[in-house]
């Protein structure tokens, strides 16, 4: 049900949405919701900082403001809450919303650990909701959807080798914000907080991962977590990928490249992409067919919060689980945990190694890191 009927577009049928956390990323959520006004109504915002909350409400004309999430849930009864607070607050806030019957769109990373994410998923309401979705906005641009469709249709052939590099630059001052750079509050460094977007996109394109071997380092920043990680990831379909996550790279770039049997597909961007950021290079003999298939595929949507939120609203209006589901988000978080487990234990790690018996199930640092 992607195209709402005129009846469904009536204001009374709009989804009642609230936001908790009104800092940097909440602005992207509110802007997207404002541009989707026929489908959603922002009824309230919550923040513990009164000045931040007041400025946010004024900028986006939000009728009600609260300093306390529980009070907002009780008084406003929203159908959907966007959780845009620091990662250490996600679990308790998500569970409060689900417990009050509201579905949730939580910012990445959804939780600090696999154990937390599994408990959050268990708090969902089953087939009729409420549901938990995680923001991984890079799945929703037309470029990623086109590659996935061509791969699923067999047009690209088998994926053989891939690179997934998130090489960004964050100066030391970036870590002055108290929750950044610490295992307890951010859950990890660039693997957990930054490269997770591209790793999620890689998994969206390549499917189940089967083994990871990694190293993590503190190369230049005075932080508790890593500032660089490098991994080799194997996939169930036989592909192998190199994954690099860095916050010390002056020439900043986000890059995914997949060599399929019949073409190389590449994406180069920074924080979001459009169609022109993707490129296909057909293998010899496949030029005509692959170029035609590429041009005929889906076009026109940039990646970003708008692209995902629009699909979340459509799913909720259709009574189905919104994307990205808990199961999919857990798969990505499991790869993050696998990178840390492999790096700190010095051995290859499989998804089966990351069950409740693993110290990396409850903490991304496995309970203590010796650098
Ligand atoms: N999807 C993306 O591309 C993307 C980009 C940046 C950040 N993020 C994620 O968004 C989340 C927030 O990051 P940010 O950069 O917006 O942080 P921020 O510090 O700018 O904003 C967080 C807000 O939460 C408020 N807050 C703190 N405790 C609260 C509480 N108990 N109840 C209500 N409000 C509370 C703070 O006052 C602040 O206004 C993080 O999980 C981060 O990883 C995602």
Question: What is the element layout, followed by pairings?
Answer:
Blueprint: E1 15-20, H1 24-34, E2 40-46, H2 50-60, E3 64-66, H3 69-76, E4 80-83, H4 90-99, E5 103-106, H5 114-122, E6 132-134, H6 142-152, E7 159-169, H7 183-186, H8 190-193, H9 196-206, E8 209-217, E9 228-235, E10 240-246, E11 248-260, E12 263-269, E13 278-282, H10 287-296, H11 305-317, H12 326-345, H13 359-362
Parallel strand pairs: 1-2, 1-4, 2-3, 4-5, 5-6, 7-10
Antiparallel strand pairs: 7-11, 8-9, 9-10, 11-12, 12-13
The chain binds nicotinamide-adenine-dinucleotide.
Structure in words:
The chain has helices at residues 24-34, 50-60, 69-76, 90-99, 114-122, 142-152, 183-186, 190-193, 196-206, 287-296, 305-317, 326-345, 359-362, and strands at 15-20, 40-46, 64-66, 80-83, 103-106, 132-134, 159-169, 209-217, 228-235, 240-246, 248-260, 263-269, 278-282. With 371 residues, it is α/β, with parallel strands linked by helices. The protein has two domains: 11-137 and 308-324, Rossmann fold, CATH 3.40.50.720; 139-300 and 333-354, 2-Layer Sandwich (Dihydrodipicolinate Reductase, domain 2), CATH 3.30.360. The strands form two sheets. It has a seven-stranded mixed sheet with strand order 8-9-10-7-11-12-13. Strands 3-2-1-4-5-6 form a six-stranded parallel sheet, sandwiched between helices. The protein is globular. The chain starts with 14 loop residues before the first strand and ends in a 9-residue tail after the last helix. The site of nicotinamide-adenine-dinucleotide has 23 residues, from helix 1.
């Amino acid at each position: 049900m992607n195209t709402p009927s005129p009846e469904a577009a009536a204001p009374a049928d709009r989804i009642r949405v609230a936001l908790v956390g009104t800092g940097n990323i909440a602005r992207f959520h509110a802007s997207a919701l404002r541009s989707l006004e026929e489908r959603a109504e922002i009824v309230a915002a919550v923040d513990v900082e009164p000045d931040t909350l007041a400025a946010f409400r004024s900028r986006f004309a939000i009728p009600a403001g609260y300093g306390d999430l529980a009070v907002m849930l009780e008084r406003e009864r929203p159908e959907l809450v966007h959780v845009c607070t620091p990662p250490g607050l996600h679990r308790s806030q998500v569970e409060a919303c689900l417990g009050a019957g509201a579905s949730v769109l939580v910012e990445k990373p959804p939780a600090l650990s696999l154990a937390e994410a599994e408990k959050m998923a268990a708090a969902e309401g089953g087939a009729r909701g409420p549901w938990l979705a995680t923001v991984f906005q890079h799945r929703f641009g037309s470029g990623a959807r086109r590659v996935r469709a061509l791969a699923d249709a067999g047009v690209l052939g088998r994926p053989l080798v891939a690179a997934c590099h998130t090489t960004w630059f964050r100066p030391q001052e970036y870590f002055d914000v108290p929750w950044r750079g610490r295992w307890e509050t951010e859950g990890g460094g660039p693997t957990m907080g930054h490269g997770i977007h591209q790793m999620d996109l890689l998994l969206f394109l390549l499917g189940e991962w089967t083994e990871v071997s990694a190293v993590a380092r503190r190369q230049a920043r005075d932080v508790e977590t890593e500032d660089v990680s490098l991994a080799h990831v194997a996939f169930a379909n036989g592909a192998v990928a190199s994954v690099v996550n860095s916050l010390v790279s002056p020439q900043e770039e986000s890059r995914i490249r997949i060599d399929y049997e019949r073409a190389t597909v590449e994406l180069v961007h920074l924080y979001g992409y459009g169609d022109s950021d993707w490129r296909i290079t057909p293998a010899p003999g496949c030029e005509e067919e692959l170029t035609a298939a590429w041009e005929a595929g889906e076009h026109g949507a940039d990646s970003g919060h708008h692209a995902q939120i629009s699909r979340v609203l459509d799913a909720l209006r259709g009574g189905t689980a919104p994307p990205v589901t808990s199961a999919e988000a857990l798969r990505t978080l499991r790869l993050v945990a696998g990178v840390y487990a492999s790096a700190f234990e010095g051995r290859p790690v499989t998804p089966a190694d990351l069950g409740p018996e693993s110290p990396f199930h409850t903490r991304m640092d496995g309970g203590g890191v010796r650098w």
